[in-house]
Fold DNA mismatch repair protein MutL.
Amino acid sequence: MSSIIQLLPDHVANQIAAGEVVQRPASVVKELLENAVDAGATDIKLIIKDAGKSLVQVIDNGKGMSVTDARLCFERHATSKIRQAEDLFSLCTKGFRGEALASIAAIAHMEMKTRQDQEELGTHIIIEGSKFISQEVAVLPKGTSFAVKNLFFNIPARRNFLKSDTVEFRHVMDEFQRVALAHPNIHFVFYHNGSEMYNLPAAGYRQRIVGIMSGKTNEKLVPVNEDTEIINVQGFVCKPEFAKKSRGEQFFFVNDRFIKSGYLHHAVMAAYEGLLKEGAQPSYFLYLQVPPNTIDINIHPTKTEIKFDDEQALYAILRAAIKHSLGQFNVAPVLDFDRDANLDTPYHYKDLAAETPTIQVDGTFNPFTDDKTNQHYSKVTSGSGSGSGFSSGSNSYSGYSKRVEPSASWESLYVGLETESIESSPFSFENEEVTSSLFNDDEVEQVSQKTYQIHKKYIVSPIKSGMVIVDQQRAHQRILYEQFLLNMTVNQAASQQLLFPLNLFYSSDEMTLIEELKASLETTGFVFEDAQTDHIVISGIPVNITESEVSIVIEQLLSDLQDGIPASSYSQNDTIAKSMAKSLAVKTGSYLTEKEQDNLVNGLFACKDPNISPFQKPTFITMRVEDIDKKFAL
């Protein structure tokens, strides 16, 4: 039998590797930016078109490459950072496997320009699908420029799996922010379709965080600083009152490399214990420095997950450092044994005895005398002494009780009431004639329609066949969902104008989402007066939303749309209606009056589909009398 196992050609192997390394344009951005950082660049420019589908270009002023290195860098497993296996445990750079450039070149049109500082001329290479088209000598500035065009041009199936430009741009934005936050000493510039998105000069950590997120971020940050033998923790956490429902602004950097760690995130949440509302997520930007030989960063293809030697110690140190910072800046309650000096008794009072005050009473005073000119004052004199706080004599404090003149006889207050006629009232009342009922009493079944609330969660209402038990939160979600969807469909939503417009601040990627949703939100009743790069101004809100709920509604909407905005307008309206219904619906644990219970039950059964909530959960169940009888028959 002939052999059937054979070695794959290089271009096929590169395409297979690209499936692991390059998942979307953001993956290309990450690899090229990290290469520029490893090259020692102090100025990096990122240019993308169509969210990276048409072009991803990274230009740096790093050390560049020689002619030989420029050609060799596109080979698989070609790297300048690894010489032996032991080097894997002492890495201080980003890329090291040597698969990134080879994988990218296998699925795109790639153009590279590079020149070293000591060389007069540079190298210009063009590659299309792993095939070298040309390599020429050119006059170039110092550094390297990579241009990746037409990503997945030779793999149409992979290109079809890409999301919309909005979603892909958000992923590119995330990768850019992670690299820029990790290296505040580098000047970054970011362009998308010719528009400048970021221009971040070299600065400190705080300035870089504020520059990327928004101007209002500065007042939210609480510094964290802890230095131990096994780890150095620096960075910032946000105050609990600025916590969000989404987990977007949460960054861990280990040795200047962005990572994701559920274990360390749990340590942060433990430090905020008792300070956050249910479901709220704090923002944090934490930079951890550990010895390279105590971590393993080669356990995940994208290098976003690493393994620590002593996770328990890191957990305890990180939790204690954050808790200490929150307490130090009076964000969290702490035990304070410092006494207020104003509440302390002075030391020279300790030997002073309390003196009994003397009272002088006039025994001849008669309160029932008719003499209107008779006025009497009783003088109350407190004891004197250096410790009493008051002095006797002419400066003594005297309290006087002045005799109140008796008023006229009480009977005079009611003179004339018995003769006062009801006709003197300015109001006239019309007698209502009581008519007989349209139906005979024996034809009408008197049924009490009272409702009852159980554990502030369920509403029980009697029906003809038994009773219905309604989940108040899900029922209200269904009611609000259909109301919002109807308003957005017919464009007849009512809006209430605000006396003072609301200024709400958001990060740049959140502002991008809001701009996409602006038209749909206006159909629900929102009125946008202005929209800047970092904040929006709202002058009108829907009638069923209070001013304090506006930020909650928009924040919940941004959280629900983290995975992208639906392409069709109907899907957008459906998503917005669901998100707003979730935010505004009455929550479990809320007390409802009997009238509110009746309105909720009546509103639910007036819906087109009262059986399920917008999230496909049952809104009510029914129990027949027969079912109850069976329970008692056991």
